[in-house]
Specification:
Blueprint: E1 2-7, E2 9-10, H1 12-29, E3 34-38, H2 50-58, E4 63-65, H3 76-79, E5 86-87, E6 102-106, E7 109-117, H4 129-139, E8 145-151, H5 155-165, E9 171-175, E10 185-186, E11 192-194, E12 199-202, H6 211-220, E13 233-243, E14 248-258
Parallel strand pairs: 1-3, 2-12, 3-4, 4-5, 7-8, 8-9, 9-11
Antiparallel strand pairs: 1-13, 6-7, 10-11, 12-13, 13-14
The chain binds fe (ii) ion (FE2) (2 copies).
């Protein structure tokens, strides 16, 4: 059996540093083959930089997926082609830089990783995530597993992606809402599924950010600057065990790793 740990959206320095500190130990303790993280909020809550990518990779993250915040950091569109362990959402419009599919190799195993962004309440120009996922999955042969990050707002769209890919990939795990869901399961044809992996960052927050400016925005409708919260830092992750001969999952477990305060 092989093991993959997926980390929910890493948010800000607090989340990043705790992830960097804990992953080497978790790799050893849980005997992980692969660690994949969604890094779309790693740089101050908005996007990611090449330096942060290197920081995460050097601490034991094997591959990084992104989401709607992919281009928030200036210059990242120029940098992404030089970052072979990072994939941008696969259903961005044609012509965007970056890889739409990663192949990760560890311990004699080879897996594919990609993310797609949902189209419900995302307000972005995107190709169909289902057709794009279908195309990517059917093209790739000879892999021991495929991991899919469905980055979406609507729980129904995420669950639809799980059912759509059931039996064809190892796992479909949701990101973007930053709230871990308790619905992890193995689907009938062997794909592990969870609606959202949660947040690696401050849980004394509203989805990773300081509550007061967000409350003010809800009360007044006036746009405000969001700042990453601090305190109660937790890793929200999902551990998937899979059979590398079939590429299908045998177990899925939520895992929370809280920083002592
Ligand atoms: Fe996010
Ligand atoms: Fe997002």
């Amino acid at each position: 059996m092989a093991k993959l740990l997926f980390l929910g959206d890493i948010c800000g320095r607090g989340g990043r540093q705790w992830v960097s500190h804990r992953i080497p130990t978790l790799r050893r303790e849980l005997e992980l083959d692969f660690v994949v993280a969604n890094g779309e909020n790693a740089a101050g809550g908005f996007g990611i930089t090449a330096d942060i990518v290197q920081e995460l990779l050097s601490n034991g993250v094997d591959g990084i997926t992104l989401g709607n915040h992919v281009w928030d950091q200036r210059g990242f569109d120029q940098a992404i082609d030089g970052l072979p362990k990072v994939c941008r959402p696969a259903n961005l419009p044609e012509g965007c830089p970056g890889r739409d599919f990663l192949i990760l190799e560890r311990n004699g195993l080879k897996i594919g990783v990609f993310s797609v962004i949902g189209r419900v309440m995302m307000n972005m120009s995107l190709d169909c995530p289902f057709k794009k996922a279908d195309k990517l999955v059917s093209k790739k042969q000879g892999l021991n597993g495929i991991f899919v990050d469905i980055h979406a707002e609507a729980t129904s769209e995420k669950q639809a992606m799980g059912w759509f890919l059931d039996g064809r990939v190892t796992a479909v795990i949701g990101t973007h809402t930053h709230v871990v869901t308790a619905d992890e399961k193995i689907m009938p044809k062997g794909t592990a599924f969870q609606t959202d992996a949660g947040l690696c960052g401050s849980h004394r927050s509203i989805i990773g950010c300081e509550p007061d400016p967000i409350i003010h925005r809800f009360l007044t409708g006036i746009p405000c600057r969001l700042t990453v919260a601090s305190g109660d830092i937790r890793i929200n992750a999902t551990l998937i065990t899979f059979d590398p001969t079939t590429g299908l999952a045998t177990d899925i477990q939520r895992l929370e790793d809280k920083q002592p305060e």
